[in-house]
Amino acid sequence: MDSDLQRYLDDLVTTARDVLGADIVGAYAAGSVGLGAYQAGRSDADVALLSAGPLTEAAKRTLVARLRHETLPCPARGLELVVYDRVVAASGTPEPGFEVELNTGAAMPFRCTLDPADRPVADGRFWYGLDRSILHQSGLPLFGPPAGEVFADLAPADLRRLLIEALSWWLALPTPPADQPAPGTEDAVLGACRSLVRHRDGVWLAKVTAGQRLIDAGDPAEVIRRAVDARHGGPPPTGAQARAFQQRVRDEIAG
Hints:
This protein is α+β, with helices and mostly antiparallel strands. The protein is 49% helix and 15% strand. The protein contains 11 helices and 6 strands. The longest helix has 18 residues. It is globular and about 55 Å long. The termini are far apart. The relative contact order is 0.12.
């Protein structure tokens, strides 16, 4: 792991334990860190905390104040932190179910949500169930029990529904104008690759690894290769290419 990130995660865990005391059960690196694909300067630091039960509003606000970037600077693009009650984490629910959601960082818009009901529907409610599925498979314990013991996976029908919701959400975003390379489309394509590999093979992979698996399996979409190359400095796909690929993936997952 990147040494700056390791020190940051150590400090984050120390701070969270100081705030929550006996109410904290575990801390887990998710996302690119858990999947072994963290890129300094590009990736977020995705962290899930597990609490012994529901948190008071005072505890939630103190945790946010102590962990936001202005107090504990994040060396990644930003911190995406979610706190879950261990009962919710073990339930396999597809609902958001979080205690706290905090996005904070030098290159990330600030977001603080203390109740899932306050999460705007337009921003997507599918993220959390999918993230807990990834945690179940590949969460990296910073302390606490193994992630697979405390985070339940989604039921197949719920997984399929949330993958379709995620792809539909991406497809509803504005398409960049003109038939020119559009920054960010590589992430949209590779995210769709990860969803397709999970649907076909039952495993979560890092985005680039998922794209490469589809290439190696003979997927004819040149847009995948272009998206992988864009991660190494090449031009990204066009908006039209990305949308067409996402639509194909959604259609396959929807059956």
